[in-house]
Every structure is written in structure tokens, then in C-alpha cells.
Amino acid sequence: MKKALSIFLFFLLIIHAIGQTTFEESLNEISKDISAKLLNKNLRKVVVLYVTDLNKTQTTAGKYIADIVSVNIVNDPGNFRVFDRENLPEIVEAKKLMDEGYIDANSAKELGKILAVDAILIGNYTVFSSTLKLTMKALDVENGFVAAASMKDLILTTDLGILLGINVNSGNSNLNRGFNNQPINSSEDYNNPGTVNPECKENNTGDYCFVNNTKYTLIVRLKRYTELTLDPGQTQCFHNQQARTYNYTIHEKGGVEYGQVYYSYGNAVKPFTRAGQISIEQCKSKTFTIK
């Protein structure tokens, strides 16, 4: 038995190591591809900006990816000079451009002059069931056009999953999400951002869903006159809610509400109750599983 367990653990370690190596090798490959294309156009002074999700949100995972790409380019034999992105906040003009969250042709040229670089590297990613699709582009600061581009599917690893705020080994197939990519409540998941109202940015709204994973019929309340009734196994959503933090209460249908405490009709036993806070984010959709 001990021998079998040892063999099993040994293979788990090998699989983990292979996953990590594959992820790092894939990042190295996309870095080499971009470097070769930049070298071919004699663009040697570069800055690697934060890699974002599809909503152009700066994330922990994106920063991690950008850092590795920066290191790979620094170590490339093409003798590149890479501007240290961590110094950007100290340059007021550069910080203003970065805070706008979008680098177009005009801002690329302006940022290029400020930093005295030849090219600006930007990137974004999309998370699928078992891979992270990474796209990197290099903008020529002389004209703002794309001078080089590369795309790669990176295998999701446990460590990358932690940065993304997901459990890679959970078997959950609903991973095409709009992440803000911070570690989140274990009962909370991000959904496909394509399901939210197209005017969410203009109206500063988002969606929030609750799934009832209990045996009770529950009432979920966000605001005094905003509530949902959920049968066991049912999912319902609050759509187009203002993006902010809300206090929520959940109680079993058939109870009587007194402040934050609920009591059953004609029964001294306190029914199912929950209370806490959730955060609705602009143009994002979340689902909270009530357990």
C-alpha cells in the first residue's frame, strides 16, 4: 500500500513539473517570437506594459505574465534594452496615459517619446477550460502601427489558477469568464462577461447571480425592495445593478424577518439564514453558490 501511494505521489509531482515547464516554455516561445520580429525591424528599446484581460483590466496574472516576458526579452541575445515598468508611476505623463487604460496609435507615439523607446508591448488573454490564450502585440512608436504580434495557448497550471482566482482542478467547465483575477470567495465564480448589458460601462452596472444549492426554498435580498425567490437547485440573477458593494440577506421562505434574525411560523427552530456582503463589478457577471 505504501509503495503504491509513493508511486502515485511521484507521478503527481512529475505531472505538476511538466505543467509548470510547459507554461514557462510557452511564455518563452512567445517572447522569442516577438523578440525576433522586433530585431528584424531594428526595434531594440522596448517597454512591456501590463497584460490585461479582455475587459482591459490590469490583473495579478497579467502582471506576472508581463514580468516573465520582460525578463525573457532582457535575456534575449538580441541585446534589447527594456524599460523597467515599475518606474512608470514616477513619470507623471506616462502614468496619465497608462491610467486611461487603452493605448492607441496616438498615445503609443506620445508614450514612446516620453520613455525614449522604439516599441511598446501590450497584451491580453482569454481563459478557456484548460488553456489561457495569450496575445502579444508590439506597437511601433513612430507611427503607432503593430510592428509584431504573437499568439499562444498556455496550459493552465495550479499556480496560474491561484493567480486567476480559479480552481484549475475543480472540473468546472464554465471557465470562459471575465476575470478581475483576484482570489475570490470559494463560493463565488465569474461568468462570461458577454452576458451583461452592452451599455454596462456607460451605466456603471453589472450582474450578480445566486444558485440555491440547499434543500430549502430561499429568499435572497440585496436591497429593501430587490429580492429573488430560489427553489432548490435554481439559479436567478440580479441584472443591471449599480456597481458597488451590497449587504445581502438570505432566509428560508416561510420564516418571519425581524431585523437580521428569522424565525419559523409556529416553530421554535430557526430556519436557514445567511448574511454578508457582495461586490458587483462594472461589466462583470458573478455567481454565488448558496451552500
What would you note in describing this structure?
This protein is an alpha+beta fold and 291 residues long. The protein has 2 domains: 2-159, ABC-type transport auxiliary lipoprotein component (Rossmann fold, 3-Layer(aba) Sandwich); 185-290, Immunoglobulin-like, CATH 2.60.40. It is built from 6 helices and 15 strands. It has a 5-stranded mixed β-sheet with strand order 2-1-3-4-5, sandwiched between helices. Strand 4 and strand 5 form a beta hairpin. Helix 1 (2-40) crosses helix 2. The longest helix has 39 residues, at 2-40. It is elongated. The model is unreliable at 4-20, 170-184 and 256-269 (pLDDT under 50).
Would you kindly provide a brief summary of this structure?
With 291 residues, this protein is α+β, with helices and mostly antiparallel strands. It contains 6 helices and 15 strands. The radius of gyration is 24 Å and the shape is elongated.
Topology, element by element:
Layout: H1 2-40, E1 45-53, H2 60-74, E2 81-83, H3 92-99, H4 105-115, E3 119-127, E4 131-140, E5 146-155, H5 158-164, E6 188-190, H6 200-203, E7 205-212, E8 218-223, E9 226-230, E10 235-242, E11 245-252, E12 255-258, E13 261-264, E14 273-279, E15 285-290
Parallel strand pairs: 1-2, 1-3, 7-15
Antiparallel strand pairs: 3-4, 4-5, 6-15, 7-10, 8-9, 8-11, 11-14, 12-13
Tags for this model:
Immunoglobulin-like, single chain, alpha+beta, 2 domains, 4-stranded mixed sheet, Rossmann fold, 6 helices, 5-stranded mixed sheet
